[in-house]
Amino acid sequence: MHFKTLFIFYLVSLINCHNILLPPYGKQCFFENLRKNDELSISYQVGSRDPSNSEQLKASFSIGSPNGQIIVKRNDVDHGDENLKAAMDGRYLYCFSNEKSSRVDLDVSFNVHGVVYIDLDNPDSDTLDYAIKRLSQLTSDVKAEQSYLVIRERTHRNTAESTNSRVKWWSVFQIIVVIANSLFQIYYLRRFFEVKSVV
Description:
The protein is α+β, with helices and mostly antiparallel strands. Helices cover 40% and strands 30% of the residues. It has helices at 2-16, 128-192, and strands at residues 19-22, 27-34, 39-47, 59-64, 70-77, 79-85, 90-97, 106-115. The chain has a four-stranded antiparallel β-sheet, with no helix packed on it. Residues 1-17 have low confidence and may be disordered.
């Protein structure tokens, strides 16, 4: 029983680490250290911890680059999904703000996902991430080659069927010509050997 209680508290702590409470005029910022070409994805939802509050609450969201430039700025949003590809190495700051409201606390829940960029052309990369990315690239190459082969087979099959169709109709035409020629010869020979009586 003691283990289950600790496990539940651990899960609650994991859930709470992605929930923040923004007081009136409050602002909270977080950061991620990214390398160039890393991808960052943030999804968020704004709500209230007050069960009697049915109003759709809104906050502001922004992402800043390592040189202090604001890359993404969203005002008065209740939810969103933002994707960012790092243009340079450094610390990227993302902030949730309740600075425009003095009435109520905002409950913001968010998830952060990242994709680490790995240079597949670098043979010195001897990591599990490199192996997974390389395997993914090779799988994509095999899939593309398979798609190409399917299209090529379909094209060749259509060509073969078209050729077979032409040969079939040419053979039918030849049979018709032979039959017509035979009928003409029979008719001509019968006329040639007919006995004409003069009265």
